[in-house]
Amino acid sequence: MSDFDNKVKELEAAVRNIPDFPKPGIQFKDITPILKDPGLFHLSVELLATPFFGEEIDAVVGIDARGFIFASGVALKLNTGFVPIRKAGKLPYFTLEESYDLEYGSNTIAIHQDALEKGSRVVLVDDLLATGGTAVAAIKLLQSLGVEVMGVSFLIELGFLNARMKFPETGEIRSLINYVSE
Ligand code: AMP
Fold first, then answer.
1. How many CB atoms lie within 10 A of CB 167?
2. Which of 57, 90, 135, 168 is placed for a possible disulfide with 86 were both Cys, Cβ 3.0 to 4.6 Å?
3. How far is CA 104 from CA 42, 57, 122, 130, 163, in A?
4. How far lies 131's CA from each of 10, 33, 37, in Å?
């Protein structure tokens, strides 16, 4: 097994599965054990940032709320700014909004209209890819701003939900931990 695979295994071993949260049938992937361990937290951010070392990236965009934790770490690693995509009603200035279905419920997300310069090159980061609704809505917001999405990175992908099929034309989609079955 490669060094990379071993590191990912370390992260995967720390993810805690909580059955039936927040409602019956959902296997919730709890990442707080990674966050509380300085070595694992650092490793997760390092591995998410690595594909972009040496690339020209203007900002790292994170999705409310757990995405913020990893995206801000990646932004610091890449020496870029951080831009939040938040749940609707949370950003104080003029926003663009996009609605989508979630694995549990539905949601609307928003970005500040002036968050990014047209033509800027960004990386989108979130904690987990499930149905893809959130990430696809986020990419739509970024594309509406005329931004180039250079990559979309997740700590965890629920690969068995086949969300990648729903993605619009965008930069490479990466995940560190991939669950191929439930
Ligand atoms: P989706 O739009 O279905 O891809 O859902 C993605 C968002 O919902 C992520 O930002 C996750 O934080 C959260 N989420 C969805 N399903 C799960 C799950 N099984 N475990 C933990 N978080 C989840």
1. 15
2. 90
3. 30, 33, 28, 10, 15
4. 25, 23, 28
* CA-based nearest residue to 151, from 64, 83, 52, 77: 52
pTM, two decimal places: 0.97
Residues with CB under 6 A from ligand 1: 26-29, 63, 66-67, 102-103, 126-135, 163
How far, in Å, is the centroid of ligand 1 from the Cα of 108? 14
The rounded distance, in Å, linking the Cα atoms of 33 and 94 is 36
14: phi then psi, degrees, rounded to nearest 5: -90, -15
**Mean pLDDT of all residues in 95-110:** 87
Contact in structure between 149 and 143 (CB atoms under 8 Å): yes
Which numbered atom of ligand 1 lies nearest the CA of 137? 2
Architecture of domain 54-179 in CATH?
A: 3-Layer(aba) Sandwich (3.40)
Q: pLDDT digits over 72-95, tens only?
A: 999 999 999 999 999 999 999 999
- DSSP structural state of residue 2: -
Strands (E) located in the chain: 16-19, 27-30, 59-63, 81-87, 95-101, 106-112, 121-129, 148-158, 172-179
For residue 67, the SS3 value is helix
64 secondary structure, DSSP code: T
